[in-house]
Predict the 3D structure of the following.
Amino acid sequence: SSHEYKLNFKKSKEMCLSYIQDAMLQKQWKRAAEFLTFYIESLEKDFSREYTSPSEVIWRIGTEILCHHSHSSMKEFNSFTEQMKTLGVKRYLKVCLEHTFHLLCNGLIDEAYRNLSLAESWRFGEQTVIQGKEMKLIKAYRGLLDYYSWSKQKNILLEHGQDGFEDLSVEQEMHGCFRKAAVNLKEIIKIPGVWDLFVKCYVDLLEFYGDHNEARQVLNEYAYNSKFPANPNAHVYLYQFLKRHGESKKSLISALKILHDIVPSHELMIDFNIMLQKSKKRKRRRLGLEVIFAVLDYAGWKENVKAWSCLARQVKQIVISEKHLDWIKQEWNSRKDWWPAFHFSRYLAKKNWQENESLSYEKALVAGILLGKDCKYFKYVSHHGCKTQAKRFRILKKFVNKHNPVYVRISG
């Protein structure tokens, strides 16, 4: 019966898709391609009255198989993509974008640009309006490629500038690329979202032509507009811009403070700590200690000499002055249950000593202050350091022994 046929057809389609998925998960691309062929043929032989259009499933699966199949070529990929564009009008611009990405990944920049230009001129009634978001992305990526062309022309001019190179055609082409890139990049970054690459390129264009106020406004909007998602890179770009243009320490600290709140383990936190330590304001120096302790809470920083050097320097300054020991105590209270095993075990002392003497020295100083002269880490490193007759390790041991009462005050 017709009903029974439909049920069987539905089951066979689902089973075929299951086989395709299984083959793809096992990276059996040839087997997956064979099943996909069967799947498409079954759709063509569907004699039910219901019209079955090429599904997004075919496009997604087919693209994945062609990207990985050992015998596939760019010609086959292009042919398949063009068929998907023709048959899947509702997904036309999405297919164009994916086609562009594939061309770019294979270094075919000119072909990618032509593909974007054709997509931008595409019109298909109400479908053009429905795919408005995709069209904005098409324009944005074309702007990105215009920026790439501008950058190439700029480098040509800069390389030959000292030799009196004067080629008006190159300069005119460069300015033409700038105008096209600027228009499209400016439009996309107005929309709330994560547009890191587009923002960086647009700011680069503006800076080159001396429009620093516009560049600053773009970066401020990207970093501080509440409509945009929280994005650490937005604050990194703003900080780097401010630093390039010699802005005040207040502005730099403000940018890095927000970055610290979002990503306390960011690599710029070392710069932030150094900047705060040099400040005459007590509040900033207190924040500096908080920043460097927070950095060392993360495993990726465990063996970073610079981070331990920053902490050792500030802790030593506080201990010598005997002011603000409560700062150290406040930071240590939330860490004293897990930092000893995380940073200051005897195993780590042995490992650090064998691999990096400078790291051992900085960590031993911190360990001696926070855990006292009987700390396993400090005892191991100071013992082996003094055996080698290293003057700095003898001074280290003397310093920790002298200030051992500080440990008692910090530990409560």
